[in-house]
Write a structure and sequence with these properties.
ten-stranded antiparallel β-sheet; globular; alpha+beta; about 20% helix; disordered C terminus; disordered N terminus; single chain; about 230 residues
Length: about 230
């Protein structure tokens, strides 16, 4: 078997570049005036596991927040990345707007359609909107390239699953999830949002299976008409 040394060197160089560009997962919580920023395994992170960042605390009118961002190496890979952001936000009678963002960089090379899934509950007068972004700059929280938007959702319960934008990047690039929560008064809002870039081959296989099924149906219809 002949091995292309140039290809191996290119793959090795790409792996080294992506490895050096891999940053630390970071979670931010903001009410528009006050902002809390927590990086993986830093002060304020209530979760000691690598790739998981949890913040528990209050932020002005948002009296309780339990937010967790999860990504590589806990879930996904650098080539097939995955981000998950869960939250539990409780506001007092004043309410307001809360932004919860989670970001990681160093992903790639990747090629595929992004998958987004959300779900949660809203108790009180509130709503939730989810947005996802990709960043060619590889900087954390780069929102240059919008990938998907889901919501706004009101209560008492919600869920949705969509296909977002396509990523075709040699890398390194960043991914960011942003959750916007609004409340007109006392409320308790919980939820989870996931973003993933699965193997493009999986999408092709599913598409091929669908086309084959359509072909079979078409053939059966032709036979039925002929008879």
């Amino acid at each position: 078997m002949k091995i292309n040394l140039k290809c191996l060197l290119a793959i090795g160089a790409t792996s080294a570049l992506i490895g050096s560009a891999y940053a630390t997962p970071t979670l931010t919580i903001s009410d528009g005036v006050n902002t809390v920023s927590v990086t993986d395994n830093s002060a304020g992170d209530a979760n000691s596991a690598a790739g998981q960042v949890t913040w528990i605390g209050g932020l002005d009118n948002w009296t309780l927040n339990v937010d967790t961002g999860t990504t590589y190496p806990a879930i996904g890979t650098l080539v097939f990345p995955a981000l998950d952001l869960s939250f539990n936000a409780v506001s007092n009678g004043v309410g307001g707007t809360l932004w919860i963002s989670f970001s990681e960089s160093g992903f790639g090379p990747s090629s595929g359609v992004t998958n987004v899934a959300t779900g949660g509950t809203v108790m009180g007068a509130g709503s939730v909107t989810f947005n996802t972004y990709g960043g060619n700059s590889n900087a954390l929280f780069d929102t240059t390239n919008w990938l998907s938007s889901v919501g706004p959702f009101a209560g008492p319960a919600f869920s949705d699953s969509i296909l977002g934008g396509t990523i075709n990047s040699a890398g390194p690039y960043s991914l960011t999830e942003v959750i916007k929560i609004t409340s007109a008064g006392a409320s308790a809002i919980t939820g989870d949002a996931s973003l993933s870039v699965p193997d493009a081959g999986t999408t092709v296989m599913l598409l091929g299976a669908g086309l084959m099924a359509l072909g079979l149906v078409g053939s059966r219809r032709k036979r039925a008409l002929a008879s």
